[in-house]
Amino acid sequence: MNRKPVPVLVGAAQITQRKGADPVADPLGLMIQASRLALADTGSVAPVRLIDTVCVVNSFSRDDEKVPEMLGRALGIAPREAVYSLIGGNTPQMVVNRYSRDIAAGRKQGVLIAGAEAIYAMVRAARGKASLDWPDNITWRQVRQAGLPVNFDTLLRLGCEHEARRLCEAGRMYLEPVNLAEDAFDLFMPQFMYPFFETALRAQAGRTPEEHRSWLGARCERQARIAAQNPHAWRRKPVVAGEIAEVTAENRYVVYPYTVRMMANINVDQAAAVILTSDAVADECGVDPAHRVYPMGGAEFSNIRHVSRRPCLYDSPAVTEASRLALGQAGLTLNDIGVFDLYSCFPSAVEIARRAVGIPEDDGRDLSVTGGLPYFGGPGNNYTLHAIASVADHIRRDRRLKAMVTANGWYNSKHAVGIYGAEPPFHPWEDRDDEPIQRAIDAQALPDPVDRVAGVGPLSIEAYMICHGPEGRPERGTVIGRLPDGRRALADIDADGQGLLRLEEIELVGQTGEVHFDPLSRRNRVAFSASVYAGL
Fold first, then answer.
1. By C-alpha distance, which of 352, 362, 303 is closest to 196?
2. DSSP of 518-534
3. d(CA 27, CA 116)
4. Measuring CA to CA, which residue among 158, 134, 176 is closest to residue 59?
5. What confidence score (pLDDT) does residue 534 get?
6. What DSSP line would sit under 213-277, residue for residue?
7. Of 13, 266, 485, 513, which alpha carbon lies 20 to 30 A from 394's?
């Protein structure tokens, strides 16, 4: 009787291109380096000819669907399938889960997953501080020819435009990450959305703004300490809580309540690659059993797509359900997990995942194996592939260890969870139908927010953010709130710079303002009484 294939990770590698690199490799060059290291990491030459699938995680700094084929050619691989993913930080864990099911079903034999970013190199070159010999990098060429600023805003918008074209050509629908109401308030960039989650979490926890700022500093300090010991981390300098929380010229607010040192650092040059196959193929190739790491369980779900339609702004049903199913497949409980890597683009992402998974607040286990996106580095959609490679290293050193990895796309929107260990899963990988769970999550969606409130009336604040300019001064504030009839509405805060600074010192969540529609800005606006500014 033939034994059903069991997926296993047999190779993993990651590299960080240091700031003074010469020559400077572009993302494809970095992927080639990381993939060669991952192939060598298997301890066998056979996996090269056995790889039938090359999957490249979407790259903002080389957004090109031809990269998987080019990577295969450079490695001497002729894959049956070359895949270039869509945008989303959930992607690395999602594809590990997907290909584990494919391998278990016999649909695939060996899979190389790779990804890279070289945004730091692009930024330096745009500032005249580096010379890039990247003639075939279509993103770099597009940015230079159009005279666009090299920053995450530019690269993300270009990436979304490209993704929309790809899906249209394939006869598929592009799903906008924001709805019309959110877009009207210029909330497309992730740094404008996550502060809503953070202020909602703060109010729910009962901490004052000052207490919460200190709490954020302490949480981030733990990440920075891990990164300082990680040879692959972009930033290896320890940072104490006070330096993270204190607002200074060097550590200004970007979007309140986040300072520079609390946010993902996308200006990095990093790459990672992993190789999946079956245990039978690993046996044939002579891969050392002590070198194998098993994906023991996994699941993927999405929260309600648009933030303003989610009934709760500080939870993640998607992570709750995905972690429950992943642990169940692995035959483990939360207490069996020795290390976690919770996606950490912003502090609220970590806290929402911690709560959703069920990890106690005072738990002594670290929530990152890398040091997190602010300190290890946030290489676009590919960060979690670094976490998976790091987890593999941990398990190879301690075969008793079990690890959980969570991956997050967009605004706490798309999620994937994976469990890893030194033994096969309790329940085999299979094509499980999880659609009823997804439908149950989606069924909780609220109606679209009211884009034009009628007259003047009360708005109860659920969450807010205050955007700061490059000089550190507050420029605009936006709230999410409820009208008396329970419907949601977004509104800009009717206040000058001094007023916005005052609102950063008090708890605005739970307060009530007077909201009206402003025909000039074509947005709702909310004003607060003197008693609110006084913190009464």
1. 352
2. ETTTTEEEEE--HHHHT
3. 5
4. 158
5. 87
6. HHHHHHHHHHHHHHHHT-TT-S--S---HHHHHS--SSS-EEEETEEGGGS-----EEEEEEEEE
7. 266
How many of the other CB atoms lie within 10 Å of CB of 66? 14
Element (H, E) at 489: strand 488-493
Q: Copy the structure tokens of residue 266.
A: 């996308």
Q: Under a CB-based contact definition with an 8 Å cutoff, are residues 282 and 292 in contact?
A: yes
pLDDT bin (cut points 50, 70, 90) of residue 49 is confident
- Tell me what pLDDT residue 1 has: 42
Structure tokens at 236: 């290896």
At 2, the pLDDT band (50, 70, 90 cuts) reads low
**Longest alpha-carbon distance in the chain:** 78
CA 214, 216, 222, 227 torsion-angle sign? negative
Give the whole-angstrom CA distance, residue 55 versus residue 39.
15
Residue with the two structure tokens 């911690």: 354
Residue 530 dihedral angles phi and psi, to the nearest 5° = -60, -35
Higher pLDDT, residue 198 or 20: 198
- The three-class DSSP label of residue 322 is helix
**Amino acid present at 189:** M
Half-sphere exposure (Cβ direction) of 423: Cα atoms closer than 13 Å:
10
Q: What is the mean pLDDT of residues 43-48?
A: 79
Chain mean position to CA 235: 18
Q: Where are the alpha helices (DSSP H) in 463-504?
A: 497-503
Q: In angstroms, how far is the first alpha carbon of the chain from the final one?
A: 74
Q: What angle do CA 326, 329, 332 make, to 5 degrees?
A: 80
Mean pLDDT of 108-125: 97
Strand-pair category, 474-482 with 258-259: unpaired
Let me know: does 218 contact 261? Beta carbons within 8 Å. no
Q: Does 333 have pLDDT greater than 60?
A: yes
